[in-house]
Amino acid sequence: MKSGGEAEVEKVRIAYDEFADVYDRRYSGLQGEYYKKLEERYVLRYCRFFGKKVLDLGTGTGRFAFSLSDTAESVVGVDISKKMINIAISKIEREKYVDFLVMDGRYVGIKDDYFDVVVSIGTFEYVKNFQSFLREIRRVLRPNGELIFTCHNVISLHLTKFIRKKTRYFYPARHSINDIKRQLQLGGFRLVDYYSTFYFPGFMVWDIYEILSSDFLRYYFIKAVVFLNVLLSRIKFIKRFGGQLIVYARTVQ
Ligand SMILES: C[S@@+](CC[C@H](N)C(=O)[O-])C[C@H]1O[C@@H](n2cnc3c(N)ncnc32)[C@H](O)[C@@H]1O
């Protein structure tokens, strides 16, 4: 059964088809290191992937799918954008083997109870109907399966959130951690833990980064931002206000 929001999903697909050729630039060089320290590190630390069957939902160009394939038994990466998937497939010879498929995350054509873990990074912000995603994730997860996903926080400290509200194609969906907890319960999951990345102060990090004249200054600027992020996210009360939430949940029997 289709869950609505088709026009929105189509906009996202078109946007990523257009964006695909330059997408990986964001994750290279110093900028890439920044995401590794703030995002990948926490996504990967939540779960032991060894010997597990993993689904990377909204895999894009395969960033997480490839890094998980080092330890997991098998990894399947699905994405709605054919161009993003084509780029992921083009990397298979250099990287490890991953099955990449063009699919809408709301209707994954894979049998019930198949995966041990579902990872979905940077994708829930395009999901207006949280439950349609959770329902499908739950279906393909085995009992007591694990889910790790990121989500934009509606109560974040991002200073620029009021200025740059809209991307070119859509408004990102945002949720608070309480909201996510409720949504997870409704969808048959329980929240185990979460972490916050502040990208402090929001996207202004990259505006300041561009202004800095030397690699030396940029290097120490990024180091300082990462340090501030890690510090803030260690404070239980403050971490509720991160720009992006990294959520770890399990299915409930
Ligand atoms: C910000 S990118 C993240 C890609 C990758 N997970 C990463 O971390 O580099 C978001 C991805 O989600 C995909 N996406 C958005 N809505 C989707 C949907 N309904 N089904 C499948 N993929 C979707 C987009 O096409 C895009 O490739």
General description of the model:
With 253 residues, the chain is of the alpha/beta class. The chain has a single domain (6-251), classed as Vaccinia Virus protein VP39 (Rossmann fold, 3-Layer(aba) Sandwich). 39% of the residues lie in helices and 21% in strands. The protein has 8 helices and 8 strands; from the N terminus they run H-H-E-H-E-H-E-E-H-E-E-H-E-H-H-E. It has helices at residues 6-23, 29-45, 63-68, 82-90, 130-140, 177-186, 204-211, 215-234, and strands spanning 53-57, 74-79, 99-102, 115-120, 141-153, 174-175, 189-197, 244-251. Strands 1, 2, 3, 4, 5, 6, 7 and 8 form an 8-stranded mixed β-sheet that branches. Strand 2, helix 4 and strand 3 form a beta-alpha-beta unit. Helix 1 (6-23) packs parallel to helix 4 and helix 2 (29-45) runs parallel beside helix 8 (215-234). The longest helix is centred in the last third of the chain and has 20 residues, at 215-234. The radius of gyration is 18 Å and the shape is globular. Bound molecules: S-adenosylmethionine. Residues 9, 12, 16, 58-60, 63-64, 79-81, 84, 104-106, 121-123, 126 line the site of S-adenosylmethionine. S-adenosylmethionine binds at residues 9, 12, 16, 58-60, 63-64, 79-81, 84, 104-106, 121-123, 126.
The main sheet comes to:
8 strands, mixed
Order of helices and strands: HHEHEHEEHEEHEHHE
* Cofactors and ligands: S-adenosylmethionine
Chain-averaged pLDDT:
88
Estimated share of beta-strand residues:
15-25%
> Into how many domains do the coordinates divide?
1
**Name given to the CATH homologous superfamily:** Vaccinia Virus protein VP39
Which CATH class?
Alpha Beta
Instruction: Decide which structural class fits the backbone.
Output: alpha/beta
Could you tell me the radius of gyration in angstroms?
Answer: 18 Å
Work out the number of β strands. 8
Intertermini distance? 24 Å
CATH topology: Rossmann fold
